[in-house]
């Protein structure tokens, strides 16, 4: 049941999609939605800051994936250094995610919008919580105080599977966020087939494709022969 | 990297979640949304018929999964019979999906609502198309005229992977649909923390959990020792 394809070309495609998606979000926020701010009379600018941070958060797995394939596999780094790269990148992603969520609450509170009523918000809180639990569990088992080799090798496939699960949820929740925000804007009068609506929908499509190619890269083979990073952690 | 857990208990959980989700959709449609119809003065009833059909469509993989584990693996059926069960169940799912999409167009056209402007509709058309392509490709390669054993064994992991990919997209798009419809209803005045909103959001949560447990079941080990169904197809 091996898929037997090389992951390297897919990682380039995933990165290209990540950059395309990030540029599309920036065009949306800066050109159509009037920019970003943390303190602003126009509270929507705080929401835009949120979009920016969440986008950063979603890009982190690609950054990590880069480090996995090019530093984990090919750079002559010690295993412990590679683990530190892994856990630091994910810590950054979690912090960015928390800043994004804080921006959402700040925007809602200052605009008298209800908090935590939508599926997007429920899943967002769930995902950041699962992500945090995954990080702490990984830190304890694989880094410090570190479980026995048996425990680590038994935990590893679950760590990978749970990571992929949380990642798919995060990509799906990004799509929910794009749809929710665009539905609000269309209710307030922007054209359903207008340029902004098409931009947002295509950004969501690019995000989903990006997520698919990241997962496909993870399932593919590493470019270097020495493919024991998983088993040797 | 083997996960090494038994799939059987998870399939019960997946089925329980499928039933719970189906009951929740029926309560929503029948109690809160006034029932279902194909021809109706109240065009929303056509939309409700759509919801019902789409739910049936999403339940099909569970039905198939059942057949996989209990007829593919444990019943003394010939391999060709098992394949027929597989392709017939998926054909039913595709037909139900098409009926659902037809109901959406019918509702939109009769209510003068624009078609195909939302992310949910774009993904829906994409998913049913990919699903149809997957079915035709599977039929040609694995059933009739049937490729060589080498071709079949090379195609099989991609067939499984693409099937899982389309399934995850379908579950995600179901969540988008719940969010979109609820956002419309909330814009029209239903309470954001009211019983209907909570019911719809929890239905979406149950749907996502259901999808996760179906995937987890697929990744688990079959209950019967004879686990060569994949390689021997």
From TrEMBL, chains A, B:
- Looking at its record, which EC class is this enzyme? translocase
Asked if the record carries the keyword Chaperone, the reply is no
Its EC number(s):
7.2.1.3
Gene Ontology cellular-component terms listed: membrane
InterPro entries registered for this protein in UniProt: CYB561/CYBRD1-like (IPR043205), Cyt_b561/ferric_Rdtase_TM (IPR006593)
**Quick check: keyword Electron transport in the entry?**
yes
Q: What are the residue boundaries of the Cytochrome b561 domain, all occurrences included?
A: 13-219
Under Gene Ontology molecular function, one entry of this record is: metal ion binding
Q: Which reaction does it catalyse?
A: Fe(3+)(out) + L-ascorbate(in) = monodehydro-L-ascorbate radical(in) + Fe(2+)(out) + H(+)
Q: What is this protein called?
A: ascorbate ferrireductase (transmembrane)
């Amino acid at each position: 049941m091996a898929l037997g394809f090389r992951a390297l070309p897919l990682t380039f495609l995933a990165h290209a999609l990540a950059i395309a998606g990030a540029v599309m979000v920036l065009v949306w926020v800066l050109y159509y939605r009037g920019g970003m701010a943390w303190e602003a009379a126009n509270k929507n600018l705080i929401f835009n800051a949120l979009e920016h941070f969440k986008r950063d958060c979603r890009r982190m797995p690609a950054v990590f994936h880069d480090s996995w394939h090019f530093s984990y596999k090919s750079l002559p780094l010690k295993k412990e250094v590679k683990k530190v790269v892994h856990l630091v990148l994910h810590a950054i992603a979690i912090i960015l995610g928390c800043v994004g969520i804080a921006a959402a609450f700040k925007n809602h509170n200052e605009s008298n919008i209800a908090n935590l009523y939508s599926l997007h918000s429920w899943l967002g809180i769930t995902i950041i919580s699962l992500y945090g639990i995954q990080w702490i569990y990984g830190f304890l088992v694989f880094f410090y105080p570190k479980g026995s080799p048996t425990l680590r090798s038994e935990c590893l496939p679950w760590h990978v599977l749970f990571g992929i699960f949380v990642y798919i949820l995060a990509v799906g929740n990004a799509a929910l966020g794009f749809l929710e925000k665009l539905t609000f804007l269309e209710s307030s009068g922007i054209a359903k087939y207008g340029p902004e609506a098409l931009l947002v929908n295509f950004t969501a499509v690019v995000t989903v494709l990006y997520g698919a190619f990241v997962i496909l890269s993870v399932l593919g083979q590493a470019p270097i022969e020495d493919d024991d990073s998983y088993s040797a952690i």
